[in-house]
Amino acid sequence: MSDLQTFAASLSKHIRDAERIAIMSHVSPDGDNLGSLDAMYGYLTGLDKDVVYIGNDDVPEDFTFLTYAKERVDVEELRDEVFDLLIALDSSDIDRFGDEGREIFLKAEKTANIDHHLSNDRFADINYVVPKATSTGEVLFRVLEALDARITPEMATALYTAISTDTGSFQYDSVDAETHRVVAKLYDAGCDHNIVVNAVYQSRSREKLALMTRVLSKIQFLASGKVAMVSCLLKDLEATGASSDDTEGIVEQLRNIKGVEMAVFLKEKQDEVKLSFRSKSYLNCIEFAEEFDGGGHVRAAGASAHVSIEKVEGKVRALVDEKIDAERA
Ligand code: 5GP
Ligand code: MN
């Protein structure tokens, strides 16, 4: 049996044996996490299972169109619950669930982990991790196929959201013929790509635009222009009326600049700084994120630091000096 078939058989058994199943988002959920969770929720409720969708942090406005996003129950309300089966999607380690989510995860009778992060540490009882896959959405599609699941139009749209957002609209080098074959099957299953395009790519608020304009005017170029770095301060949010989620997409704008190999985006939060790294073709973002105890993928990684944003900026500069030969063509 292939790894996929072995995993699908175990998952199927755990689902059959379980009365109460939970699926859980990671903190700061993104399109891949939310799209995959939505599809999994659709599948499990279709089997007439008692399913709880555990939410960590709010759903960003762009993704509220997803069919089951409104079913989420805040993690804080579920602190004392013990689930028969807990399924994690798009989470590389248990720290991604936050303190309360981690407790709930550790108490669950059985746990499953479906993901595509290279740094995934196989934290569950059963794990299916495909690092070369574009997205957890693509991995989950394979799992659902192996389970002989009926993919409803809502599930297809959710999986399309996951794949589309985690590939930068099919631009990243992880995209291959297989990705497009999966997407073709999602169209066959009734995926509505217009709703995704409209909600995710064509609904930018004026406040978000004001934030992007303000923040992007402060770009710092390092290593002869190979690295572009920007910090978003709490006062930038205040001045523009934008929300913390509105920083989504800024790091990609930095990476898209000609000559830039790696983009670094720093976001000041109440008690921490969130770091995001993106690269184009040769720098490994994981190497940088790991310096701050984070992780992710070669082309996209992140971390959180509990020091001032000035200190984080200083450390990034030092790492860039150390790791990148500024003279290299
Ligand atoms: P983003 O920059 O969009 O927050 O994250 C980019 C990638 O890095 C995502 O795949 C995400 O899962 C991963 N990532 C972001 N923050 C963290 C973190 O604090 N720890 C780990 N291990 N991975 C992270
Ligand atoms: Mn992902």
Structure write-up:
The structure is a single chain. The protein is an alpha/beta fold and 329 residues long. The protein is 40% helix and 18% strand. The protein contains twelve helices and twelve strands. It has helices spanning 3-17, 31-46, 98-107, 136-146, 153-166, 177-188, 193-201, 206-216, 234-240, 250-255, 285-290, 309-323; strands at residues 20-24, 50-55, 73-74, 85-89, 110-115, 126-129, 220-222, 227-232, 262-268, 273-279, 295-296, 300-305. Strands 3-2-1-4-5-6 form a six-stranded parallel β-sheet, with helices on one face. Helix 2 (31-46) runs parallel beside helix 4, helix 2 (31-46) packs antiparallel against helix 5 and helix 5 (153-166) runs antiparallel to helix 6. The N and C termini lie far apart (47 Å). The model has no long low-confidence stretch (mean pLDDT 96). The structure holds guanosine-5'-monophosphate and manganese (II) ion.
Number of DSSP E strands: 12
Helical proportion, percent range: 40-55%
Number of helices: 12
C-alpha geometry? globular
Bound molecules: guanosine-5'-monophosphate, manganese (II) ion
Distance between the termini: 47 Å
Low-confidence runs? none
Return the structural class: alpha/beta
Helix and strand string, N-terminal first?
HEHEEEHEEHHHHHEEHHEEHEEH
| Overall average pLDDT | 96
The main sheet comes to: 6 strands, parallel
